[in-house]
Amino acid sequence: MGWKEELSSLIQNRNTRSKLRFDEPLGKHNYFGIGGNAAAYFEVSTTDELAQVAQLKKRWEVPVALIGRGSNLLVSDAGYSGIVVRLIGEFNRLEFDQNRVDVGAGVSLPRLSKIAANRGLSGVEFALGIPGSVGGALIMNAGAWGSSFGDLVERVQVMTEEGEPIDLNHDDAQFSYRHSGLKPYFCVTEATLTLTPGDAEEVDALMQDLYNQKITSQPFAEENAGCMFKNPPGHSAGKLIDECGLKGHRVGGAEVSKIHGNFILNLDNATAQDVLSLVRHIQNRVKRERGVDLEMEVQLLGF
Ligand code: EPU
After folding, report:
1. Are 124 and 137 in a shared domain?
2. Ligand 1 pocket mutation, candidates 236, 243, 249, criterion most atoms within 8 A of CB
3. Which terminus of the chain has fewer Cβ atoms in its 10 Å neighbourhood, N or C?
4. Which of 186, 216, 246 is at the close of a domain?
């Protein structure tokens, strides 16, 4: 039996909501709409199944990648030779206890943001316009408008490479700008956030206001993966790219947004290679003209 048969046997004859497909095109599972096939694509609905994937990874030395909601991801044209995992089912749990919320890693940030606002809880208003998952937001310490996800975290549960759950506190998670110490674990499974009690109407108004600011200053209609580069200390990557005259610059089907320089759009069936060539071009120009190194924020898969 190979790893594919063993993976299939995980869900065969079981009453599970998990879904497994082989040779799955990844373009339809990420916001760039780019990328080749995954050898296996597994929507995992229970902690038990996830632990078995961790063990299978170890036993067969098959690569496993958690893709969140695919909103901050560039997948190679050659695809991915391992198992791509997306968390569903149990991982979509949202449970409030006064101003604290236990939230599963599969929950989308806009859903969390709206439900918190309905309850008059402040803290995640910034997240309505970020289409990622809670798991991705924890690992990347996602943020906008001066707020970062990590600031709200009281506890994070991760799963080790052995499939064991571990609870980490805020400091253990080592949050910094668009970074955390959570990446080395097999998976982030859930978190407890501390929100601030407020007035539901005010929280909703702030959430809508931040959303409106986002859609007027950033592109949202075309396929993209959010900000392509981290902001270098003391600079805005988008502003630097803009000042180098690169807005609208195109390689193949990929174009630098004319609205915000830090976004690359898949305008016309761009390949991952188009995007990466554009990334390299931008990095070289900004380095030459402004002496600043731009580091990618978008995560690469299959390169
Ligand atoms: N600017 C330009 N030209 C551009 C883009 C920006 O002149 O093409 C100027 C703006 O006018 C503004 C300044 O640069 O004066 C900063 O721009 P903005 O307010 O858009 O913020 P940012 O630093 O470019 C960061 C985050 C965004 C987040 C916004 C809003 C990073 C890499 N980017 O962008 O996050 O939405 O602030 O808070 O940290 C993401 O992480 O994917 C992302 C989009």
Report:
1. yes
2. 236
3. N
4. 216
Q: What secondary structure does DSSP assign to 116-169, as a single string?
A: HHHTTEES-GGGGG---BHHHHHHHT-EETTEEGGGGEEEEEEE-TTS-EEEEE
**Domain of 72: which CATH number?**
3.30.43.10
Question: Do 106 and 208 lie in a common domain?
Answer: yes
Q: Are residue 181 and residue 227 in the same domain, yes or no?
A: no
Ligand 1: does its nearest atom lie under 6 Å from the Cβ of 237? yes
Q: Which atom of ligand 1 is nearest to the CA of 226?
A: 42
Q: Which atom of ligand 1 is nearest to the CA of 227?
A: 42
How many domains does the chain divide into? 3
* Domain coverage including residue 261: 219-301
Q: What does each of the 303 residues of the chain score in pLDDT, given as a tens digit? A: 899 999 999 988 788 899 999 999 999 999 999 999 999 999 999 999 999 999 999 999 999 999 999 999 999 999 999 999 999 999 999 999 999 999 999 999 999 999 999 999 999 999 999 999 999 999 999 998 889 999 999 999 999 999 999 999 999 999 999 999 999 999 999 999 999 999 999 999 999 999 999 999 999 899 999 999 999 999 999 999 999 999 999 999 999 999 999 999 999 999 999 999 999 999 999 999 999 999 999 999 999
Q: Which of the listed residues 216, 233, 264 is the one where a domain comes to its end?
A: 216
Q: Whose CA is nearest to atom 43 of ligand 1?
A: 227
Nearest CA to ligand 1 atom 28: 144
Q: Is the dihedral of CA 138, 148, 71, 251 positive or negative?
A: negative
Query: What is the DSSP secondary-structure string of 223-269?
Result: EE-S-SBPPPTTS-HHHHHHHTT-TT-EETTEEE-SS-TT-EEE-SS
| Together in a domain, 61 and 120 | no
